[in-house]
Amino acid sequence: MNTMNPVIDQDAKVEKAPEPPAGNGINDADLEGRTVGRPFADAPKFSLRDVEVFYGETRAIKRISLDIARNEVIAFIGPSGCGKSTFLRCLNRMNDSIDICRVKGQLQLDGHDIYDPKRDVVELRARVGMVFQKPNPFPKSIYDNVAYGPRIHGLANRKSDLDDIVERSLRGAGLWNEVKDRLDTPGTGLSGGQQQRLCIARAIAVSPEVVLMDEPCSALDPIATARIEELIAELSESYTIIIVTHSMQQAARVSDRTAYFHLGHLVEVNETNKVFTTPQHPLTESYITGRFG
Ligand SMILES: Nc1ncnc2c1ncn2[C@@H]1O[C@H](COP(=O)(O)OP(=O)(O)OP(=O)(O)O)[C@@H](O)[C@H]1O
Q1: HEC sequence for 119-137
Q2: I need a surface site. Which of 32, 77, 149, 175 has the fewest CB within 10 A?
Q3: Centroid of chain to Cα 102
Q4: DSSP state of 186
């Protein structure tokens, strides 16, 4: 975790928590466009306002507004199907590949519109890298997995520059010592945890500013998970990290702030320890105490 807490605007407009819904009913009107906690940050990396995402006619994200500060680690949690991955994928336009998906609202990275039609999406995804649930190394050598991005982005003119980037990235992903003697063997021959670290090395090889992680540990055993969590803490010194996780323990261990999603709404966002010890919204409290999810 980043030792420096992100600067959260203390005067930010914070909506009063809606009254608890009657019974278990979720009322869209109560939650639409609102949240509780501290959704806004000074000079944010991402400024996201009134974001809606539709799959065909179905609205999966319901007017969410949130800032994400520089170099913070923010965790997205919530029950299955609440929209965590959909919202995450808006941040580097991974949803573009889904034909029926439509994104509305203002989404800015460093003050520039992420969905500007003139924006170079390849460049955006180099700045906002992504690590997926299942490790997905290319069917290439360990070296070429990491060198692929720098090559297509023209980041190295000479072989020695490329070698440096590969070594630095593998070191950054905590994998160098395990693979330095077999860089020309297939990436797919590594263990699951090593493959996930290789994917992290691949993401950081193009010097991103943000790393999106969509349940990066769900396919890993506890030891490999612990290694990735340590890595998140190290990476947070240099990158903004946004992690979707089903594990509340993981969110508590790795993140500065936690955002709780429910049926397409952002219900609450706050410093992680506050969300887990003194949640402000009854839906958050129900989730973290295991009443549903
Ligand atoms: N490609 C798609 N086409 C149609 N609907 C989709 C698609 N992807 C997601 N959805 C729907 O959007 C909603 C949000 O899904 P999403 O995967 O973002 O949730 P999630 O919180 O990440 O879930 P999980 O924790 O189970 O991964 C769900 O109702 C889901 O069925």
Answers
A1: CCHHHHHHHEEEECCCCCC
A2: 32
A3: 20
A4: B
CA distance 64 to 50: 5
Cα 129 to middle of ligand 1, angstroms:
20
Enter the pTM of the model: 0.90
Q: How far is CA 114 from the centre of its chain?
A: 16
Distance 178 CA to ligand 1 centre (A): 36
Ligand 1: residues with CB < 6 A are 55, 60, 78, 80-86, 98
- Per-residue model confidence as pLDDT tens digits over 215-241: 999 988 899 899 899 999 999 999 999
Residue-wise DSSP of 157-185: SSHHHHHHHHHHHHHHTT-HHHHTT-TTS
- CATH numbers and ranges of domains, the chain: 30-288 (3.40.50.300)
Q: Quote ipTM for the complex.
A: 0.98
